[in-house]
Amino acid sequence: MSKPVIVALDFADDFECIEFLSQFPKDTDLFVKIGLEMFCQFGYPFVRSLRNRGYKIFLDLKLHDIPNTVRRTCEMIAKWDVQMLTVHGSGGSEMIAAAKKGLEGSNTNLLAVTQLTSLGQSELSEELMIPQKSQDYVTHLAKLAFDNGADGVISSALEVPMIKEVTDESFLCVTPGIRPKTAQVGDQKCVATPKEARELGSDAIVVGRPITQSEDGFSAYKNICQEWNK
Ligand SMILES: O=C(O)c1cc(=O)[nH]c(=O)n1[C@@H]1O[C@H](COP(=O)(O)O)[C@@H](O)[C@H]1O
What we know:
Elements: E1 5-8, H1 14-21, E2 31-34, H2 36-52, E3 56-63, H3 67-77, E4 84-88, H4 93-102, E5 109-113, H5 121-127, H6 134-147, E6 152-154, H7 160-166, E7 172-175, H8 194-200, E8 204-207, H9 209-212, H10 217-229
Parallel strand pairs: 1-2, 1-8, 2-3, 3-4, 4-5, 5-6, 6-7, 7-8
Helix pairs in contact: 3-4, 8-10
The protein binds orotidine-5'-monophosphate (OMP).
């Protein structure tokens, strides 16, 4: 099975989103990411409607709360038949384990966010006062997630080899911050091309604006899939 290109549906309204999706032929095996922006506006009915179209869903809610609240939230999401869900790894061991417990019996992969790809070393040390080097912090959070039952992490592609080394080959590394050579980097600090991500061992890539803001979203998607799965 080819590894997925997950399309991040970060749209301001559902009409724009549905219009974007209408470019894709019905038989496209689409894997989409629903993030906070769309979920806050359209909630579960939107998730269900995309699932009913046969799309695979990465529900990117980046949960971060006390373990009890996260577990109860995950128990609810476990009924939604989504393929991936995110929590923040920095929520700690108990919170990660509680999320996994909440998802018990479902097919939802639990992914922990390590360090956001929009944060560089200076934000980490100067703003968040985290003394570790960024790479050490990421591998530490990845190991914490692994040890507490997560199925994988969200990280930069550049960090995948280190993460696989401290966890396991089967531990999923899902990587945003993907930019084909011709695309604008924008607010992302840690970027890689689809080819680089593949060579570094990513299990799936998350791509938003290079596809959703393109004149021809379907072609952009196909080109990225081609480079990724070569
Ligand atoms: O959890 C994520 O998906 C995520 C984590 C992270 O560290 N960086 C990151 O960019 N993302 C998401 O990945 C997507 C990237 O979108 P583009 O930068 O438009 O390709 C957005 O939906 C982000 O919310």
